[in-house]
Design brief:
- The protein has three domains: 20-377, Alpha-Beta Barrel (TIM Barrel); 399-575, 3-Layer(aba) Sandwich (Rossmann fold), CATH 3.40.50; 633-747, Sandwich (Immunoglobulin-like).
- It has 23 helices and 27 strands.
- The strands form seven sheets. The chain has a six-stranded mixed beta sheet, sandwiched between helices.
- The longest helix is centred in the first third of the chain and has 17 residues, at 138-154.
């Protein structure tokens, strides 16, 4: 698709090969997962209408509950051929049992698909996706997905409802935890790497799982930051901001796409033919499966566009949704709609063919039990290699927001250290929301990690000081007493896992409860204090920043949480994470993001300009922020290798980076571009490149970026996609707020 938006297949391939994984077969973007067409055609020809509709029905097992309803008598439904796929069912023995019913007790013996929400790990849990994005490292995202696929597939899972690739600029929305933040460019890089990690080199390999890009599309723009809410986006904003990660996922061969719960331009995504048929299948050539979200099809009635169940089933199916997740309406209503002539049998056959091709691509017709392997489940789960990867990637995800006075790193042989706060020993919260099949008993807490990191003679004093929502005067008094016995204090503050994720929107995103008062009281003891913040979203931290010298944003780091954090606190590892989403000063600034549009009256000291009376416009911590390890770097100005870029050509941009500190460290160099004059208004800056460079003390390295006219393209006034000749500014720095710039011109017809 020459001239189409998004990352090129060549660039995506380079990203995922660099991550040590290869892109899945590109057929998913052009004709769906490849299977035996003759076998599938023969099978469809022998299927009754009810058996066909059964293949389009996905129901939940009671093994895990992720919504308001569960399916009664699952085994009978499978035996009757009324179910083609099951989710929330995992474990080699259990999935083998259900699969045996499908292949031995149904007339045609079509195997089941087993699905699960494996977002950031299965048994070995990695940082939440927002934390993985904070690594600014597609290789880390791909590796985490690869480990998750190995473990989930060993437990009988064929299909994951991940990655979530929604762009989000409103941290009130709880599901910001599940995505890659605010940048379409970074989101596309992470999406491509995750799809490749899940699906591996060959989807037929038994250690892969089919991936699902969700939630298509614009779901992250939920009005008021309230989950499941409406979205109101122009087509230009939708295409430039919210669609690029989905396009990257489809170009990487993603097997499935899930529409969002939201409506878009008045039409719920599950029934939005323009989104599914025109854009996804028509423009992008996607040939894989489209699966509804949980009960999204019957919810078309509550949206007010369907009069009854039959109407809801018709609207969703004719819009291009192939599989009904837990709604039951395809099963109940599609046969009647076909019999009444309102849905052609050929349309049903096309949807069934897509489902069967996915099963064939996974190798299930060759061996229905290939994923349900108790021995592989035993030997390939929570392995030393997987735990090492979880710890390493968790370390990469940590963002050092503040380190006033170089309080960190702590010495490991101090007489006593206190770990205080309601999250000091909360193992379940370390895993975060949507933690697969993770077990809190396997997770290391912050207190655990500190105990293992300090010298044998160092005492570790642990005090919860109340709960997340409330600390009494007595709780705070105990915390002060413990802090005064210690040489230094680690404060574990933030949200518990259930305060982020689905159905976890918050109108106030400050520290919950009395945690700010707790932090102030502990800091007043005069002890060196480092706050470790756990959350699935940006928090408003203005008051906390004034109270303590050190802020380390830990997100929810996963199984290896405590050990990874302790590695950074005591200087065994460098904090190299960067913010993939801006942190506002106050809720009233939302949305605040690096790629905002200019106005006719930019903020200045003049009264009649676009500014607040009571706050600066800029965020407390900008996109890309993170202190540069425990050393210092100097990033030189960008040096374009020439003054012009010709259409179809390539412009190299070199940047010198020097480690001016006294220890080895890693800097994340970020390249942004601004189109100075366009036919429509263009963002003040857009991320277009990221390079991580590790340098010894005193060492200088040169990083290089390459720009093409594709990087400068946008949806023009006539809604065609492409570049415009003119002058551009290229900005390079350690974050979106601290950059140095140069200029070049795009020339040519």
């Amino acid at each position: 698709m020459a001239g189409s938006p998004g990352l090129s297949l060549r660039r995506i391939a380079a990203i995922v090969f660099a991550a040590g994984i290869a892109a899945a077969p590109a057929g998913a973007a052009e004709g769906g997962p490849t299977g035996s067409d003759a076998m599938i055609d023969d099978l469809i020809a022998r299927m009754s209408l009810e058996e066909k509709v059964g293949q389009l029905t996905l129901v939940s097992s009671t093994l895990a509950v992720t919504g308001p309803e569960v399916t009664a008598d699952l085994e009978s439904a499978v035996a009757a051929g009324r179910v083609g796929a099951v989710f929330n069912a995992f474990g080699a023995d259990y999935t083998r049992h259900l699969q045996r019913i499908a292949v031995e007790e149904t007339r045609l013996g079509i195997p089941l698909l087993f699905a699960h929400d494996v977002l950031h790990g299965f048994r070995t849990v990695f940082p939440i996706p927002l934390g993985i994005a904070a690594t600014f490292d597609p290789a880390a995202a791909g590796e985490a997905a690869r480990v998750a696929a190995v473990e989930a597939s060993a437990a009988g899972v064929h299909w994951t409802f991940a990655p979530m690739v929604d762009i989000a600029r409103d941290p009130r929305w709880g599901r910001v935890a599940e995505g890659a933040g605010e940048s379409p460019y970074l989101g596309a890089l992470i999406a491509a790497a995750q799809v490749a990690g899940f699906q591996g080199r060959d989807l037929a390999a038994p250690d892969t799982v089919a991936a699902t890009a969700k939630h298509f599309a614009g779901y992250g723009a939920a009005e008021a930051g309230r989950d499941y809410n409406t979205t109101d986006l122009s087509e230009r904003v939708l295409r430039e901001t919210y669609l690029p990660p989905f396009r990257a996922a489809t170009e990487t061969g993603v097997a499935a796409v899930m529409p969002g719960f939201n409506d878009l331009d008045g039409v719920p995504a599950t029934a939005n033919a323009w989104l599914i048929e025109d854009v996804l299948r028509g423009e992008w050539g996607f040939g894989g499966v489209v699966v509804s979200d949980y009960t999204a099809i019957p919810e078309l009635k509550a949206h007010g566009i369907a009069a009854d169940d039959r109407d809801a089933a018709r609207l969703a199916f004719t819009a291009g949704t192939d599989i009904d997740m837990q709604g039951g309406l395809f099963l109940a209503e599609l046969p009647r709609l076909v019999e009444a002539g309102r849905i052609p049998m050929a349309s049903v056959d096309r949807a069934v063919r897509r489902v069967l091709k996915l099963k064939a691509a996974l190798g299930l017709f060759d061996d229905p039990f290939r994923y349900s392997d108790p021995e592989r489940e035993r030997t390939q789960t929570l392995t030393a290699e997987h735990l090492d990867a979880a710890r390493r990637i968790a370390r990469q995800s940590l963002v050092l927001l503040e380190n006033e006075g170089n309080v960190l790193p702590f010495e490991s042989d101090m007489p006593a250290i206190a770990v205080i706060g309601p999250l000091a020993h909360d193992a379940a919260s370390m895993l975060g929301p949507w933690a697969g099949a993770g077990d809190p008993a396997q997770a290391s807490t912050l207190a655990d990690g500190v105990r293992r990191a300090v010298a044998p003679g160092t005492r570790v004093l642990v005090e919860p000081a109340g709960e997340i929502e409330r600390s009494s005067a007595q709780d705070i008094a105990r915390a002060i007493a413990v802090a005064e016995k210690a040489s230094a204090v680690v404060l574990a503050l933030g949200e518990r896992a259930g305060m982020s994720g689905e159905a976890a929107s918050r109108a106030d995103i400050g520290l919950p409860g009395d945690q700010l008062a707790l932090a102030r009281a502990v800091a007043a003891t005069g002890r060196p204090v480092a706050v470790v913040l756990f959350s699935g979203r940006p928090l408003t931290l203005t008051a906390l920043r004034e109270a303590v010298p050190v802020l380390l944003q830990a997100w929810f780091p996963g199984t290896a949480a405590g050990d990874a954090i302790a590695d950074v606190l005591f200087g065994r590892a460098e904090p190299t994470g960067r913010l993939p989403i801006s942190f506002p000063r106050a809720v009233g600034q939302i949305p605040v993001h690096h790629d905002a549009k200019p106005t006719g009256r930019p903020a200045s000291g003049s009264h009649y300009t676009s500014r607040y009376l009571d706050l600066p416009n800029d965020p407390l911590y900008p996109f890309g922020w993170g202190l540069s390890s425990y050393t210092d770097f100097e990033i030189g100005p960008p040096r374009p290798d020439r003054e012009t870029l010709a259409r179809g050509g390539r412009l190299g941009i070199s940047v010198d980076v020097t480690n001016t500190g006294d220890r080895v460290g890693t800097e994340t160099v970020q390249l942004y571009v601004r189109d100075l004059v366009g036919c429509v208004t263009r963002p003040v800056m857009e991320l277009k490149g990221v390079r991580r460079v590790t340098l010894r003390s005193g060492e200088t390295g040169t990083v290089r970026f390459d720009l093409t006219d594709r990087d400068l393209s946008f949806w023009r006034r006539d809604m065609t996609f492409g570049p415009e000749p003119g002058r551009f500014e290229v900005l390079v720095g350690p974050n979106a707020a601290e950059t140095r710039s140069a200029f070049f011109e795009l020339v040519g017809p």
